[in-house]
Design goal:
92 residues, alpha+beta, two-stranded antiparallel sheet
Length: 92
């Protein structure tokens, strides 16, 4: 349904016929770690995430899984490469 509380006019999975069904009754503003993400929408009441109603929960145990401004660390670049496996990859 379309949000009628904080993110008016935006499609929201937490909206029901009785209003916002999220814990607390509305979405929470983004944290400073969310700055620069493409999923942030600016509204007159503040900046909100399109993916999660409470972004602080997503950042509690590390990086947000939906953050578009964070780059994943590639751990294999610094590790050793098995020459047999590398030759098989090149053959394909």
């Amino acid at each position: 349904m379309v949000c009628t509380s904080v993110k008016e006019g935006t499609e929201c999975s937490f909206m029901g016929s009785k209003g916002c069904q999220f814990n607390g009754g509305n979405c929470h503003p983004i944290t400073e770690k969310c700055e620069g993400c493409q999923k942030v929408v600016k509204r007159p009441s503040g900046d909100y995430c399109l993916a999660f109603p409470d972004p602080t929960i997503k950042w509690r145990f590390g990086n947000c899984s939906m953050a578009t401004h964070m780059k994943a660390k590639d751990e294999k670049k610094n590790g050793k490469v098995n020459p047999l496996k590398a030759s098989k990859r090149r053959a394909h």
